[in-house]
Design goal:
The first copy, chain A, is of the alpha+beta class. Chain A is about 35% helix and about 20% strand.
Chain lengths: ~525, ~525
């Protein structure tokens, strides 16, 4: 069943539920799968090995976190790439290569286990910067400290985003090797040293290995995915993002101040590029600031399909109390005072046009009486299937031209993440879910997250890999001070041992999933 | 003859000229005035005295300029106020007082010459900051250097704006005292140490002396007023300025992000204060960005009167080649491709609504994907008689309310300069013009400048003083590096001697003008 966009937007939540034909139900592992794989002796031995090596595994997190790798400062990047390469060698990767780019280098590594299945694995080895005086424990010390209600945690820049998390994954893989001698899947690692700067050159890391990566069966991201209450939210993809800067200048317009601002008293005789930008932006959305008036912008959107509607319906019926908790901390009400279910529907299925930045003239305290010679706005349009970045830019151009603003320049910004989506039926997704269920966790599965990521570089042609991410564990305060990853854990949130064990489970689940 | 605004705006330039009844002609000194006053032995002796003391006068400029007084850095302010007070004592002022304010102090001084007429005289003793490495001669050295085509100049911060200029005036006044023993007029000096910071506290300097200042007959500003070609432009007043900041926040609106920006992917479910500000601003002007749609904003404007039309007409007919020379350096064309005469008409007689600054969200390089919780704009509305600041703010408030934007906050900014205007018939204006004519210069007289100044604090009630400014001499690059004042001069531009002589002339002209 598919709905036209118009029909879809007319649906009430109740109607959407019935249109979806009840709860989503096709998430079931093959008969005996848990016993044969997840509870097998082989996996239990690896679990035990992890528990026994807890101290050594904690030390590994500390070693990786104590090596700085702040991409925006250029701090420790080469050294961290070297350390990462040594980890891949310890994992028995025969190919470990530093990949030069126009920015910080990437890393390629390949572990050939002689296994039937091959996964693609993305690693970012850089971190955000830090202001040490804001931290309660030094960001490069990676100390084990107490943090209620989680018990011991490691506090460090990169603890959860992503170096600490990746070190836990390396621990898990090494444990498999130490017990079994080989991994259950082959792994191609592609690593980014500029994630925190927008992964500007990451395509240069992928390019030389694209043909190799085509041999992968799936793209898998392991890491701590629980929230503070132990709940799991899975996103099967993300929206695309078309980011542009609109620049209106007197120079390009041929009117108003030409090369620099002019005294504001001259507004009596001079046109204003700033007023012009406001008039141009005004044509792009309706009075509510929400409905987009760029002609054709909604046309490429395909209606939600049956699977998406079922996933949506399940979210609304089973997880309604925690779907928008984070968003509510900084918002009183949704657009049009929508109920949460309606908001979730738009978050998943709707495009949006946002002003991320806007500026002209003097923006400091007090007044500077100037008539600015230019004004600019940064906009982002979130794209749902089948909206694409380039055609969206073209629609904006056509809209501005049609309204007489041919002089307003459109400058594309950002790496250009297209939308990305994997079917819930993909084995890589199903295996992750089967592990969650083994731990008694029912994940809230979003057919699509509202955010954007470079994941499309793996999931869209030419690679077209199904992708999933998951694993137990918890960390928080990425990009902020006192970033941490949980080591001890509690009855809701996994500590380092259970988290690493869950990564082993997922690898074995995927290796053994039929198909 | 007066015209309605509507009729006035319909006038072609030619019609305006004929409506004004030909050239302006009532600028004539009383019979024999030049011989009796400007060429009198008394004045000639003072001229000679100035010529003889040229070196000492130059040293005085250097002394004052070498004393720093950068108000924004708080550098040398107290010391400069002290030096200024010593100058007033040398001028025989019996009252010399430092006036405390909530900012930098002002100075009050009164020279009682026992003369029939009293003038009010404004002095600013602070300067802009400077970046020494940009200067070809150190900004605090006040060296005499060669600068073509003017010969010797003094290069220093404050050389022309205004300390060097004021030192020349003090030289001129001292010369009168040294020759005559007393000045031809009494003078009340009110001095500002924060002009370069917007004269925020200057009303606190005036307040204690307001009743004294009411006894003045006129407000006179002496200083170098020639451009590089020796031409003189006189402005008989300025427009008022109503400056406001409009702030649209999610908090005040009760919608969208409340306390901080939120991830821009949430635009799909959240309203945007930035789009709202754009929609609100959009209602304030027509599509051209020029015609103001704030209801009632044009209502208070009185049509140009006969004197203004005659002055305007004279400007157009006699000075058309140099009226807008400065403006043309940074502008290709005026609004609606007006001819210059039409532009001048709007510059003098029209109100305007300008966006001086506009900002929201992230304005740095690249992209930060945020939905901002606030957006703001700085606007200034230039006011012509009889528009006033407070009623204009009220009209903006009413407009926003009427269009449903009651939540958008209006924050008044700036000192609040009202419009100011003196009739060309005022004796203080006529005496200045008579001196120019004595030197063979026909001034271009603008009934009103497009800019704004705190002059209204003297010219509007309660003081209601007629005001004029003038004098020979030239300087340039105020606020920029290599600021200078001409010492030597050439056949077009007066050097220090002729400039100081012209200030003496103006004082005697005004003292002896009938009425």
């Amino acid at each position: 069943m598919t709905l036209s966009r118009k029909d879809f937007l007319k649906l009430t939540t109740a109607a959407a539920a019935s249109a979806a034909g009840g709860f989503f139900s096709f998430l079931d592992a093959p008969a005996g799968f848990a016993e044969d794989v997840l509870r097998s002796d082989r996996v239990r031995k690896i679990h035990d090995h992890i528990a026994k090596n807890r101290q050594r595994h904690i030390a590994r997190l500390q070693e990786y976190l104590r090596q700085p790798s702040v991409s925006s400062w250029g701090m420790g990047i080469q050294e961290c790439a070297g350390l990462l390469m040594s980890y891949f060698k310890r994992l028995g990767c025969k190919e470990v290569e530093l990949v030069r780019t126009d920015g910080h280098p990437g890393v390629w590594a390949y572990h050939d286990a002689g296994a039937p299945k091959t996964i693609s694995f993305y690693i970012m080895y850089d971190t955000q910067p830090f202001d040490e005086k804001e931290w309660s424990s030094p960001p490069l010390a990676a100390n084990v400290v107490k943090l209620a209600p989680f018990g011991d945690v490691i506090m460090a820049r990169g603890a959860v985003n992503d170096k600490g998390a990746d070190a836990m994954v390396f621990n898990a893989m090494e444990s498999i090797l130490e017990v079994e001698g080989k991994l259950p899947v082959n792994i191609m690692f592609t690593c980014d040293g500029e994630e925190e700067q927008g992964s500007t050159h990451f395509h240069q890391v992928l390019a030389p290995y694209r043909d190799r990566l085509k041999k992968c069966n799936a793209h898998l991201t392991l890491g701590p995915s629980q929230d503070a209450d132990g709940n799991i939210r899975m996103g099967l993809g993300g929206k695309g993002i078309c980011s542009v800067e609109l620049v209106c200048s007197g120079k390009a317009w041929g009117r108003g101040p030409q090369n620099r601002p002019i005294h504001s008293s001259r507004k009596a005789i001079l046109d204003s590029p700033t007023w012009r930008l406001i008039k141009a932006l005004n044509t792009m959305v309706k009075a509510d600031g929400n409905q987009i008036l760029i002609e054709g912008l909604y046309d490429a959107i395909r209606p939600p399909n049956q699977e998406e509607l079922e996933l949506y319906n399940t979210l609304i019926q089973k997880f309604s109390d925690r779907l928008l908790v984070g968003e509510k901390q900084n918002a009183k009400t949704w657009i049009n005072d929508w109920p949460d279910a309606e908001a979730v529907r738009h978050l998943i299925f709707d495009t949006s046009l946002n002003i991320d930045g806007l500026w002209s003239g003097y923006t400091g305290p007090g007044m500077a009486t100037i008539l600015p010679d230019r004004a600019a706005a940064k906009l982002d349009c979130r794209l749902v299937p089948n909206q694409e970045i380039k055609p969206t830019q073209d629609l904006i151009r056509r809209h501005l031209d049609k309204h007489g603003y041919s002089d307003i320049e459109i400058i594309p910004i950002g790496g250009g993440d297209e939308w990305s989506q994997t079917s819930v039926k993909a084995p890589v997704v199903q295996s992750v879910v089967s592990v969650y269920r083994e731990y008694g966790i029912e994940p809230a599965i979003w057919p699509r997250e509202a955010g954007s990521s470079p994941m499309a570089q793996y999931t869209r042609p030419p690679l077209s890999l199904p992708a999933a991410d998951g694993g137990l564990g918890h960390g928080d305060r990425a990009h902020s001070h006192d970033e941490f990853i949980v080591i001890e854990g509690n009855d809701k949130v996994a500590g380092i041992v259970r988290a690493e064990q869950s990564y082993v489970d997922i690898l074995y689940a995927y290796a053994n999933w039929p198909g």
